[in-house]
Write a structure and sequence with these properties.
The complex is a heterodimer of chains A (529) and B (985). Chain A has 529 residues and is of the alpha/beta class. Chain A has helices at residues 48-55, 78-88, 106-116, 121-134, 150-162, 180-197, 208-213, 248-254, 290-294, 347-354, 377-387, 403-413, 418-431, 447-461, 477-493, 505-510, and strands at 4-17, 20-33, 37-41, 63-68, 71-72, 89-92, 168-172, 200-204, 216-221, 224-230, 233-236, 260-265, 268-273, 305-314, 321-331, 336-341, 362-367, 370-371, 388-391, 465-469, 497-501, 513-517, 523-526. In chain B, a hairpin with a 1-residue loop joins strand 23 (699-702) and strand 24. The mean pLDDT of chain B is 83. The chains are: A alpha/beta (529), B alpha+beta (985).
């Protein structure tokens, strides 16, 4: 067995917060060879990002050993950990903004890791130019990050992460907010650059495609590796002491609840439910309790949305760029339409236009055949208040309010009485699977749960038109599928017109229509159910 | 770092603004310190007499032109103006008259009067002016001298001659302006004289920073003269210069201390705004960390940015500071360049600036690098502890540090408010749920991204607290000045005897004073009282004041006495007449006859006659001897009361027994004799007996012992003890002690029945303590205590022992016509009375340069703080530090521009009001420290009466309302401007 590049043994990592301690890693063990490429999967809050931060020396483990190229990062002080990172690590974050300084041109941003390592200017230039060429951004070297699309920014961030030829590349959900082609580009680029330098790569991702392409993938749950897939075959990981984590889908399918019976069957073990009752599979949308079914909302009327030759630009002066040009499209009432397209293709802009948060530079936008053209900001706000629920890409529920208070406050703004708002909040939170967290303050919820609170708020506010932007970007696959089902049902059951910008295939699968932006011409397709 | 500065200079703006303003403020304080020092020095020099401000070169011996040139060169070399030459001769008898000739060059500068200045003095004729003393002759002629007195004049100052000759007494002083002419008169050649060259220090041209140099030069010149062993001597006002330098040195220290405290408060703004950089910096540091930067590289980045920011701000602030300094110096009439050279551009100034830059860089670096919440919590705890400590020390803190305590407490309070603001906003949101939705939305908006609003609220609290403290400081200072002025001058004016001990009532009768004042005039007797306390005797000031006038005293505090002043005054009032009158002689009486005898020794007998104004005149009657006889003496004009008879040893024997007593202290009484006095008979113009007064019921006191048993004559025993014996009618004070108000220590010395034996002005007075006072106006601070009595009662008690001893020597005047009174006191005989006006004293105390400078510094800091508070609030809610997600989220929820504007206005108003509320609480608490600050800021060490904290609640409330209104207005304007530009997507 060759010497391991990375070896983690029984690593525990506890986050101490004001609200209490939370164990992000709970006895995680992992070993990687030099040049190996690993994809780490797992639901939100499973400990994926913590794993990367511990390996990168950005965070010290609470217990266990973290050997990185022969050094125990867990026992190093901050200064030595910084040196370890300096020597071995390239880090690519989910958000390119967190690695690219907004004040630097991208060539300088890519060159910065080299400058920090004392590489001469000329060498920095040539290396940067080569990397940007490889990333297809050779002609944008003088641009600032803010002038690039999300995919472009992520490619630049990747260039910066590998510029100093690190032996170890750590990538945290590098494709989370990218469209499929951009994601493919990034994955390919990682492979290409890693191949060229023999880099050991650990990628954290929600993207199954990413896992499919990796030579090895592990799944994390509750701070431990529970499943490993090597060269296409899946295995469950048997931890120290014989602990095995049975994946939730298997438990759901078999109906195993709190207890199970294990029997030896040939050379295997058969697990069967031990209790009398089989556990029903959870679903965010259905089945509901009698109460929630009874209060299913009867929408006033689904809103018919139509765009006629709408154009919209972003930026000013020389940087002004058309985001949407001459777009004519209509969204059928009571249907879920998924808006897809590469990063920067105008999905969010389109949603903001429909949500009456922006006005077109040209063309007309009609809601229920009523043109929004000529309406002043006050009237547009009234339209939003009366009809539209909107979930932005970066939702911002109020952290110090509970989930229920967040929803009811939004309804109070829309003129509901306190009682009605409170009842509606409880109902909608039950529908998004947060009934038991309704009184919890949002800043104590996980990122995925907070996103579901924001979704609940948007759904509660919608009176015919629900506009959601990447509602599953922070969710694991199971939660994302559940949200997709919920949105589909809301469209059909509540009679809402739902327009959803997404990259999520599961969501797209549940959509009635798909509008793809960014191609030579917007393409609209109906999805067969 | 450079790229960040180039691309986003705006994110440096707020901390840089705060630091630049703090630097400019510090520069202004430093400059004001130099200016205040100069004012203090001038004030100190001006306070010393003109004689104490002159440099004098004297020459012992005949003056030649070379001597004169040397003296002038000496003074010129010291940078002093052209000197006044003075020649002063010893008194000399000329033509039978003793006069004192003198010559003063530039005579016109030194004398006043209508007489023309005399011309040249020649042997044939030497015209001179009479500058003092009485001289009947106009021409004094002796061989070689022919003085003609051409008029009279008055010396304006004692500087040239060393004294101002008395107007009508003493040796006549004759002055001429021709010094050489007088010197060359052959007839005076044998008269001893002194020559001097005087250069007064021009305080208007002498700056405080020149004092040390001048003093060094003077000392060097003095030492050089001593070394030369010449006949020259140099005297200079070293004491005055030292005092001025000491005052000058105190001023900038005190001012810088106050300014330093205010700077500490302003530094909160820096910390708060630097805190706004944290998020941005943390992001950048995280980027660097992810990119593989080492710890040292990250530190270099963070500290480098802090240092660069500080450098820009400090340089900008210094430039502004120089401009402000120039303005201040110009306004004060001082040379701008010199003030700059001695403040900002001095080595100390530049080093301080560099130190300030380093400190600011360190503070910003610390704020950027320190772990967030915990550091702030630790700071908040430290702040709370500091606040508690400051409050527990309260007004007891003295010295210069006291000025620093309040602003530092302000800073501490700011940190506490910052850490508590978020929780307060959340609590406010909970309370607002039952209220109108816009208010709740505004509170949600503030509480959901609380860092910037908390910073703004904390700074508003600090600014408001500082402003409130400045108000309390001013109110306390004014109250203190008023109280101290009232302590020195209890009514509107106070007149004390002349240097020659002439009392106001001797110069003018009470009725005239009342006419001049147009109000109450209190005749006050000021003397000493001695009493026994334990084994020692204690002497304290004793004051006799009309009991009814106590109510007129200004600045009296209820805490000053054991009972309200009115009640104490009532206790002082006697229950009946304070004095039993003797027989009033008929108006037609021209002489007084008395039958008297003293069998064993001769006794001098005099009648004490008292006129209607209370003035006692002694009428010697003659010697009582072994053989009874009736003596007659002529009465002075006017109507008199025979107040008493005074017995004393004959003058010749007094000298003998005095000598014997001196030789043998043990021997007290040399002899005693029985004395028979009476009856007293008033005799008219033609010798007719107008009134016969029996003295049989009179009493003897002092050296005369005995009580009358009736009849026409009084028989008593006179003991020769060196003291007088007084025979007078029985007085109420014989049986009734004098009610007195005393200090606690004196009260403790009283007997159980509250009576206390006093010796007032050498005479025994039995007092009874009717009240205890903690202080009384005009009693010196270092007095061991005091005794206050009703003036009439005390006077009667004293008169009972020795007629004439009860005369008042001070006047306390309550007047609405201070100007008229002042004018009357400006000339004539009244001008020599000691006079002080309460308003003038109060004005002087209020305008002490240090106090005014400290107040100005605090006011400027408060004003600056208020402006920065508004800037900070706007930055936090609509500017660089705002959280755009708050507004965007509300827009998503359907709020239109109008509602958003209202929400923004409400947010600004609520944050501002919360800050003001917190600041008002801070100010209310900090007012307790105002006393310590005023004491620390003033030159006087222990103000009398002790300062009391004055909390100007009305002004505080008005100021708080004004600030809230300002925030409302600013919110209204800012929201309008913002909404006009902003789209909410």
């Amino acid at each position: 067995m060759s010497a391991a590049a990375i070896e983690l043994r029984d690593v525990f990592c506890v986050h101490r917060t004001n609200e209490g301690d939370a164990a992000a890693l709970q006895g995680l063990s992992l070993r990687l060879r030099h040049g190996e490429r690993l994809c780490v999967l797992g639901p939100s809050g499973a400990g994926k990002t913590t794993l990367l931060r511990v390996i990168a020396g950005l965070q010290a483990p609470s217990a266990g050993s973290v050997m990185v190229f022969g050094r125990d990062a867990g026992r190093l002080g901050a200064r030595e950990r910084a040196r370890l990172r300096h020597q071995f690590v390239g880090f690519l974050d989910q958000h390119a903004e967190s690695t690219l300084p907004p004040e630097l041109r991208i060539a300088d941003a890519v060159a910065m890791p080299l400058a920090l390592r004392g590489v001469r200017r000329a060498q920095r230039r040539s290396r940067t130019a080569a990397l940007l060429r490889t990333a297809g951004l050779g002609d944008r070297a003088d641009a600032f990050a803010s002038e690039l699309s999300g995919g472009e920014r992520q490619r630049v961030a990747l260039c910066a992460a590998v510029a100093h030829r690190p032996p170890l590349l750590l990538a945290d959900e590098p494709t989370a907010e990218l469209d499929e082609p951009s994601a493919r580009d990034i994955a390919g680029l990682i492979d290409e650059l890693a191949e060229a330098e023999g880099t050991t790569v650990i990628v954290v991702s929600h993207d199954p495609a990413m896992a499919d392409n990796a030579e090895r993938a592990v799944r994390i749950r509750d701070g431990r590796i529970v499943e490993e897939r090597l060269h296409g075959g899946r295995t469950l990981v048997v931890g120290p002491g014989g602990w095995i984590r049975v994946p939730s889908p298997l438990l759901e399918e078999t109906g195993i609840g709190a207890t199970a019976r294990a029997e030896v069957l040939g050379d295997g073990v058969l697990l069967t439910p031990a209790g009398a009752e089989r556990r029903a599979p959870p679903d965010l949308a259905a089945p509901r309790t009698a109460a929630t079914s009874a209060t299913r909302r009867a929408c006033a009327a689904a809103v018919a949305v139509e765009l006629r030759s709408v154009s919209r630009s972003r930026g000013r002066g020389a940087r002004r760029r058309a985001v949407i040009e001459q777009l004519s499209v209509s969204f059928a009432p009571g249907c879920l339409t998924a808006v897809t397209g590469r990063s920067g293709s105008g999905k969010t802009t389109l949603l903001e236009l429909v949500a009456a948060l922006r006005t077109p530079d040209a063309g007309d936008l009609l809601l229920d055949d009523a043109s929004l053209a000529g309406l002043d900001d006050e009237r547009l706000a009234e339209v939003r208040r009366r009809r539209i629920g909107y979930l932005p890409q970066e939702p911002s529920p109020v952290g110090f309010l509970s989930a229920a208070e967040n929803v009811s406050l939004a309804l109070r703004i829309r003129g509901r009485s306190a009682d009605r708002a409170s009842r509606a909040a409880d109902d909608i939170l039950a529908r998004v699977g947060l009934a038991d967290r309704a009184q919890q303050r949002v800043w104590r919820l996980s990122a995925g749960e907070a996103q579901r609170v924001a979704l609940a708020r948007a759904m509660a506010s919608a009176e015919g038109l629900l506009v959601v932007d990447e509602p599953t970007s922070r969710l694991d696959q199971a939660s994302a599928a559940a949200v997709a089902r919920l949105l589909a049902e809301t469209a059909t059951g509540d009679g809402q017109t739902i327009i959803c910008a997404t990259h999520d295939l599961e969501l797209i699968r549940h959509a009635d229509h798909v509008l793809e932006l960014g191609a030579t011409a917007p393409r609209r397709t109906a999805v067969a159910r | 770092m450079a790229a960040r500065a180039r691309r986003r200079p705006g994110h440096w703006l707020l901390p840089a603004l705060g630091l630049a303003l703090a630097t400019a403020f510090a520069c202004a304080v430093a400059a004001e310190g130099v200016i205040a020092a100069d004012r203090e020095a001038r004030s100190a020099l001006a306070g010393s007499g003109s004689q104490q401000r002159s440099v004098e070169v004297s020459w012992l011996g005949p003056v030649t032109p070379a001597v004169g040139r040397r003296a002038q060169a000496l003074l010129h070399g010291l940078g002093l103006p052209a000197p006044t030459r003075v020649a002063l001769m010893n008194p000399v008898r000329l033509d039978g008259v003793i006069v004192r000739p003198a010559a003063i060059s530039s005579l016109g500068h030194w004398v006043s009067g209508r007489a023309a200045l005399p011309g040249a003095c020649t042997p044939s004729v030497c015209p001179m002016l009479l500058a003092g003393g009485a001289l009947q002759r106009r021409i004094l002629h002796v061989p070689g001298v022919n003085i003609r007195v051409t008029g009279t004049t008055t010396l304006r100052s004692a500087t040239p001659l060393g004294f101002v000759p008395p107007k009508s007494s003493g040796t006549p002083v004759l002055v001429t302006g021709d010094e050489r002419g007088l010197d060359s008169l052959s007839g005076l050649s044998g008269v001893y004289r002194s020559h001097s060259w005087l250069s007064p220090l021009r305080t208007d041209q002498l700056q405080s920073w020149q004092l040390a140099g001048l003093e060094r030069r003077l000392q060097a010149a003095q030492a050089a003269l001593v070394q030369e062993g010449s006949q020259f001597s140099l005297s200079a006002p070293f004491a005055a210069l030292d005092a001025a330098r000491a005052e000058a040195a105190t001023a900038p220290r005190r001012l810088l201390t106050a300014g330093g405290g205010a700077l500490a408060a302003l530094s909160v703004f820096l910390i708060l705004t630097a805190y706004g950089l944290r998020r941005d910096q943390r992001d950048e540091v995280q980027r660097l960390q992810i990119a593989g930067a080492r710890l040292s590289q990250r530190l270099v980045f963070s500290l480098g940015e802090a240092a660069a920011l500080s450098a820009c701000a400090v340089v900008a602030g210094f430039a502004v500071g120089i401009a402000v300094c120039a303005l201040l110096a110009h306004a004060a009439g001082l040379p701008v360049g010199a003030v700059l050279n001695h403040s900002l551009l001095s080595l100390t100034g530049v080093v301080t600036l560099a130190a300030g830059w380093l400190l600011a860089s360190a503070v910003i670096g610390l704020v950027l690098l320190a772990p967030g919440g915990r550091a702030a919590d630790v700071l908040a705890l430290a702040g709370a502890a500091a606040l508690a400590l400051a409050l527990s020390r309260g007004g007891s803190t003295g010295g210069a540090l006291a000025v620093l305590v309040a602003p530092l407490a302000c800073v501490a309070a700011g940190v506490v408010v910052y850490r508590g603001a978020a929780a307060l906003l959340r609590a406010g949101e909970r309370l607002a749920r039952a209220g109108p939705l816009p208010a709740r939305l505004a509170l949600v908006g503030l509480a959901r991204a609380p860092v910037a609003p908390s910073l703004a609220i904390a700074f508003i609290a600090v600014s408001t607290g500082l402003a409130g403290f400045a108000l309390a400081y001013r109110a306390t200072l004014e109250r203190g000045a008023a109280d101290q002025a009232a302590d020195q001058v209890p009514l509107d004016a106070r007149l004390t005897p002349t240097p020659s001990f002439q009392t106001p009532l001797e110069l003018a009768p009470l009725a005239r004073w009342r006419r001049l004042a147009g109000g109450s005039v209190l005749a006050v007797r000021r003397t000493d009282a001695t009493f026994t306390s334990g084994a020692s005797s204690v002497t304290v000031p004793a004051l006799g004041i009309p009991a009814s006038g106590l109510a007129l005293i200004h600045g009296w505090r209820t805490s000053d006495g054991s009972a309200p002043l009115g009640r104490l005054a009532a206790r002082l009032r006697p229950p009946g007449p304070v004095r039993s009158r003797g027989p009033v002689l008929p108006a037609a009486a021209r002489s007084l006859s008395l039958t008297m005898s003293a069998p064993s020794a001769a006794v001098e007998v005099a009648a004490e006659l008292r006129d209607s104004a209370g003035t006692v005149t002694e009428l010697p009657l003659g010697l009582a001897s072994a053989r009874p006889r009736t003596v007659t003496a002529r009465l002075p004009t006017g109507r008199h009361e025979l107040q008493a008879l005074e017995l004393s040893e004959p003058a010749g024997e007094q000298a003998t027994t005095g000598h014997q007593n001196a030789e043998n202290p043990a021997a007290a009484t040399q002899f005693s004799t029985a004395v028979s006095l009476g009856p007293a008979v008033a005799i008219g113009r033609s010798g007719e007996r107008l009134q016969r007064s029996a003295l049989g019921r009179w009493d003897g006191v002092g050296a005369a012992a005995g009580s009358g048993r009736g009849g026409s004559a009084m028989r008593l025993r006179f003991a020769d003890s060196g003291a007088a014996g007084v025979v007078r009618p029985p007085q109420p004070s014989d049986v009734r002690p004098v009610p007195v108000l005393v200090d606690p220590a004196t009260a403790a010395a009283a007997a159980r029945n509250r009576q206390i034996g006093l010796t007032v002005d050498g005479l025994p007075v039995r007092g009874v303590v009717v009240g205890v006072l903690r202080r009384f106006p005009t009693v010196p601070a270092d007095a061991a205590g005091f005794v206050i009595a009703d003036e009439a009662t005390l006077a009667a008690a004293l008169e009972a022992s020795l007629p004439g001893q009860g005369a008042a020597d001070e006047l306390w005047i309550d007047t609405a016509k201070a100007r008229v009174l002042g004018a009357a006191l400006g000339g004539g005989a009244l001008a020599s009375l000691g006079q002080s006006f309460r308003s003038a004293v109060e004005h002087r105390l209020r305008t002490e340069p240090i106090a005014v400078g400290t107040l100005g510094t605090l006011a400027a800091a408060a004003g600056l703080g208020a402006v920065l508070a508004i800037v900070g609030l706007l930055a936090a809610l609509v500017g660089a530090l705002r959280e755009p997600l708050v507004e965007r989220d509300l827009a998503i929820q359907g709020l239109g521009p109008r509602a958003l504007r209202r929400e923004l206005q409400l947010r600004i108003l609520l944050a501002g009001a919360l800050g003001v509320l917190a600041g008002a609480a801070v100010a209310a608490v900090l007012t307790r420290l105002a006393v310590a600050a005023v004491r620390g800021g003033a030159t006087i060490q222990a103000p009398r009466p002790p300062l009391v904290t004055v909390a100007p609640w009305g002004q505080l409330a008005l100021g708080a309302l004004g600030l809230v209104a300002a925030f409302a207005l600013v919110g209204w304007l800012a929201s309008a401007a913002v909404m006009a530009r902003r789209r909410w997507a």
